[in-house]
Amino acid sequence: MQSHHVKRWHGHGLPYLEQKPLPGHLIVIEGTDGVGRSTQIELLRGWLELEGYAVSNTGWTRSPLLSETIADAKAGHQLTPITFSLLYAADFADRLEHEILPALQAGFVVIADRYMYTAFARNAVMGADPEWTHEVFGMALLPDLVLYLEIDVDTLIPRVVKGKGMDYWESGMHLALSSDIFDSFQNYQRRIIAEYNRLGREFGFITVNARESINKIQAELRAHVSDYLRRAQSGPHPQGDGVAPAPAFPLAPARKV
Amino acid sequence: MEGIDGSGKSTQVRLLERWLRARGYPVHFTEWNSSELVRNSMRRGKRRNLLTPSTFSLLHAVDFADRFIYQILPPLRAGMIVLADRYVYTAFARDVARGVHPDWVRGVYRFAPRPDLTIFFRVPIEVSLERLLAGRAKLKYYEAGMDLGLSTDLVESFRLFQGRVLRIYDQLAEEFDLRVINASQDIAGQQKVVRRMTGEVLREYDRQRSGSQNANAVASR
């Protein structure tokens, strides 16, 4: 079972790498803090493995090269929008080259817990130049599918409070919006969510209503993933040969940088 | 101050700094790859040869951005002279020699302003090799571009990699109007040229400074 999906880059890509076929599938789960991404990814992974797919996970700021540095820098509060963005990009590039691309070459389904869109949303809210952020992430591979867990801040708050609580960064305290963590969380997350919604339209995310129960969300995610996998494997050129069904969602447009 | 490893630029920056301080200028010195923020990642990446051209480039960009925000911008805002041992052109030359896209790396550093003066210490590879090997026993892995697999021999790899870097520097000198100094000359001779070039740039600075001092004097009266 091989995908004949043509992979594309967000910008200039990684010109120094030898072009190798990437028969795997890159599926991204996006959504704000506390929306339930990791629970859903856990369930998706189990299901895909039962279906016979080899699955590889990768997550934001989890690179061996940078995870500690990012944690230390966050603890020391010395980051600015520019250094924040570049650290995210370095973490991302490390995982792209050492985890994501090798897994795709080996034909795995890669599930990414957050992708470059997280940087786009956060940087926009922090006030970094959005064009610049897109340029920096020009080395990114465009995913095959972006599933966006959409929620509103009023539904999100009780979940976060019941969960691990409001943390400094997820509440946007670094933006000094308010000295009150609750007000700051509400204000910051509202802006982040608005930015995600905008990005979703720009990049053709598939939006999944994350206000529903865990099982209902999972069922919907699986339906989208099945649908994608069927189309990806149905023919050499799923978009063009007239035999394969037309894509049910627009492919993420390659952005002009 | 720009140039390949072993071009002697650090010696020249130090001499220039002494001269400027002796003449009463407020000077701040900053050096490539010296910020605390990415020191551990850089060390880990280098020790285990984990760095790819992109992560090598981005870690240096984090280092630069951190120094830019905390060490370059505030002194400039305060009207000081900032001396930088290497600037963005190092990334434009080295990272592109490693294979990243030239437009990408220029984009990454887009937040950095053009310096008032950039001096490129141009030296043939053999001269820089001689200087580096005289000072220490062995070339460093990344400085020799060993990560690119151009040659298994350290010295040969250095020649090939730094040769690429040098050719790109020559193009950058034209594109960004870098002032070129023949860095094979004797140290004192080079320093004379460096001071002359710096002096030219400082004429405008001196005018502004004496202007603002007069203004202050008027205001305090």
Which features characterize this protein?
heterodimer, A: 257 residues, Rossmann fold, five-stranded parallel β-sheet, 8 helices, 5 strands, B: 221 residues, mainly alpha, two-stranded parallel sheet, 8% strand
What does this structure look like?
The complex is a heterodimer of chains A (257) and B (221). Chain A has 257 residues and is an alpha/beta fold. Chain A has a domain at 25-148 and 210-232: P-loop containing nucleotide triphosphate hydrolases (Rossmann fold, 3-Layer(aba) Sandwich), CATH 3.40.50.300. Helices cover 46% and strands 10% of the residues of chain A. Chain A has helices spanning 37-50, 67-76, 81-105, 116-126, 130-136, 153-162, 181-203, 214-232, and strands spanning 25-30, 55-59, 109-113, 145-150, 206-209. Chain A has a 5-stranded parallel sheet, with helices on both faces. Residues 237-257 of chain A have low confidence and may be disordered. Chain B contains 8 helices and 4 strands. In chain B, 60% of the residues lie in helices and 8% in strands. Chain B has 221 residues and is mostly helical. In chain B, the strands form 2 sheets. Chain B has a two-stranded parallel ribbon.
